């Protein structure tokens, strides 16, 4: 099976459309979105229309749209973007995001998925301690996550479970899975990368070939920049797209 996994599109439809062109050319069997289809940029409904055709998880920005008090944890630019998003989502899309789940499994590909982590749906896996706690909570070989907007591979050796390694991924990159290892794969962000590379990022998992491809792709950043400015989004949110931060 060939599976595309995309996360953190954040209402950036220009980025998502560019990603979907590549996904469609790869003839994947399944497409999963790992949450945060909304927030930050001004086309959340268009992003959700694409997600609805496939499978989607609850991200913290969807959660904030339906639980307004949660958005108080966000910085002021993100809070303003959530307010804008909530006021602009269709009734159908509010209903859709309110029913999203926090985890998904693909029984055929034998993978698990979450937005941020299994320990807490919106926790950031950024340390070996947190990675280890999450490895304890799934039995499949691979857990796919998003949330940090930084692509990465956490590898656990079956022989030495405390031996966890982190490989950060800044460019397109393919690696072969090893049968004596388990993985937490952070698939990066389609719509707002934060690793210094402004190109979007997503992943294709091939369960027969047993490999994972990180795909970095260009998209017309200036289109999203202008749409976001025109919608009155915070200029910091617009400018950061060009730097990938
Ligand atoms: Fe996000």
Write the layout of secondary structure elements.
Elements: E1 2-6, H1 13-25, E2 30-33, H2 44-52, E3 55-56, H3 60-66, H4 76-88, H5 91-98, E4 103-106, E5 111-114, H6 128-135, E6 142-145, E7 152-157, E8 164-168, E9 173-176, E10 181-186, E11 200-206, E12 211-217, H7 221-230, H8 235-243
Helix pairs in contact: 3-4, 7-8
This protein binds fe (ii) ion (FE2).
Fe (ii) ion (FE2) is lined by residues 8, 10, 36, 59, 147, 149.
What does this structure look like?
Residues 1-206 form the Calcineurin-like phosphoesterase domain. InterPro entries: Ap4A_hydrolase (IPR050126), Calcineurin-like_PHP_lpxH (IPR024654), Metallo-depent_PP-like (IPR029052), Pesterase_MJ0912 (IPR011152). This is Serine/threonine protein phosphatase family protein. It is a single chain. With 245 residues, the protein is an alpha/beta fold. The protein has a single domain (2-243), classed as Metallo-dependent phosphatases (Purple Acid Phosphatase, chain A, domain 2, 4-Layer Sandwich), CATH 3.60.21.10. Helices cover 31% and strands 24% of the residues. The chain contains eight helices and twelve strands. It has helices at residues 13-25, 44-52, 60-66, 76-88, 91-98, 128-135, 221-230, 235-243; strands at 2-6, 30-33, 55-56, 103-106, 111-114, 142-145, 152-157, 164-168, 173-176, 181-186, 200-206, 211-217. The strands form two sheets. The chain has a six-stranded mixed beta sheet. A six-stranded mixed beta sheet has the order 4-5-6-10-7-8, with helices on one face. A hairpin with a 4-residue loop joins strand 4 and strand 5 (111-114). The longest helix has 13 residues, at 13-25. 45% of the residues are buried. It binds fe (ii) ion. Fe (ii) ion (FE2) binds at residues 8, 10, 36, 59, 147, 149. Fe (ii) ion binds next to loops.
């Amino acid at each position: 099976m060939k599976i595309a996994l995309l996360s953190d599109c954040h209402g950036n439809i220009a980025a998502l459309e560019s990603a979907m062109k590549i996904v469609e050319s790869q003839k994947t069997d399944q497409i999963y979105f790992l949450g945060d289809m909304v927030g930050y940029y001004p086309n959340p409904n268009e992003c959700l229309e694409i997600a609805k055709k496939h499978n989607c998880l609850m991200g913290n920005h969807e959660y904030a749209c339906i639980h307004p008090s949660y958005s108080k944890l966000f910085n002021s630019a993100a809070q303003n973007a959530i307010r804008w998003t909530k006021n602009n989502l269709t009734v159908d899309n509010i209903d859709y995001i309110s029913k999203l789940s926090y985890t998904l499994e693909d029984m055929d590909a034998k993978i698990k998925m979450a937005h941020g982590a299994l320990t807490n749906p919106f926790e950031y896996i950024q340390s070996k301690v947190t990675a280890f706690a999450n490895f304890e909570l799934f039995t499949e070989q691979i857990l796919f996550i998003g949330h940090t907007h930084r692509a990465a591979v956490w590898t656990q050796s079956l022989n030495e479970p405390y031996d966890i390694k982190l490989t950060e991924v800044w460019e397109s990159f393919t690696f072969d899975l090893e049968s004596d290892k388990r993985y937490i794969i952070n698939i990066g962000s389609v719509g707002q990368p934060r690793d210094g590379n402004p190109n979007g990022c997503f992943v294709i998992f091939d369960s027969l070939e047993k490999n994972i491809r990180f795909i970095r792709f260009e998209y017309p950043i200036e289109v999203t920049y202008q749409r976001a400015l025109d919608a009155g989004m915070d200029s910091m949110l617009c400018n950061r797209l060009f730097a990938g931060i």
